[in-house]
């Protein structure tokens, strides 16, 4: 459970939902480098947003792993889509952890720079990019906690889980992070 000294108190919520249906200022798209419609979360977001999203992404590509771009949400309930490209898992020896952390940092920074009050993340890189869910969960929680400890103003952050296993890993990582603040 979060404690008073925990920087995540009041700003982080783990939810199970279809990210394309969320009424937040922004949702994060686990994108590909060319920011084109793809499979998984990316395909679902592009499908729900409509063809305007792909057109808005064209001039913003390429987007290297770890970086982020922002577009309007078009047909989504979310006002904006923040596109970030997670690393492809290569065994953990190719700077994957730092690139994944950069996805969260750069996406939150874009939200802050655009005065957004809420942002929802999928489990970046855990789908076809193959990042192990337990490791990805730990990186997500640690990165968000680090940013929350350094900044006075943070958007409300939702970690949106599609699978029960990812939710379990995120809850475990959050519990460990909270124990470390006591």
Automatic annotation (TrEMBL):
Question: Could you tell me which CDD domains the record lists for this protein?
Answer: Macro_OAADPr_deacetylase
Q: Which residues does the UniProt record annotate as the domain Macro? A: 1-178
Cited InterPro entries: Macro_dom, Macro_dom-like
Full protein name: Macro domain-containing protein
Q: What is the lineage of its organism?
A: Bacteria, Pseudomonadati, Pseudomonadota, Alphaproteobacteria, Rhodospirillales
């Amino acid at each position: 459970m979060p404690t008073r000294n925990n920087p995540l108190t009041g700003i982080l919520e783990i939810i199970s939902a279809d990210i394309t249906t969320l009424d937040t200022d922004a949702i994060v798209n686990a994108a590909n480098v060319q920011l084109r419609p793809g499979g998984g979360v990316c395909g679902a977001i592009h499908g729900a947003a409509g063809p305007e999203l792909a057109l808005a992404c064209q001039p913003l590509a390429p987007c290297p792993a770890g970086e982020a771009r922002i577009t309007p949400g078009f047909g989504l309930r979310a006002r904006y889509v923040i596109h970030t490209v997670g690393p492809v898992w290569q065994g953990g020896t190719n700077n994957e952890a730092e690139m994944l952390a950069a996805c969260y940092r750069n996406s939150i920074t874009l939200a802050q720079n655009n005065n957004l009050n809420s942002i929802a993340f999928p489990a970046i890189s855990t789908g076809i990019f193959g990042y192990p869910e337990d490791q990805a969960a730990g990186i997500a929680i640690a990165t968000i906690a680090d940013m929350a400890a350094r900044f006075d103003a943070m958007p409300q952050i939702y970690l949106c889980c599609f699978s029960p296993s990812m939710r379990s890993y995120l809850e475990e990582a959050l519990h460990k992070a909270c124990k470390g603040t006591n």
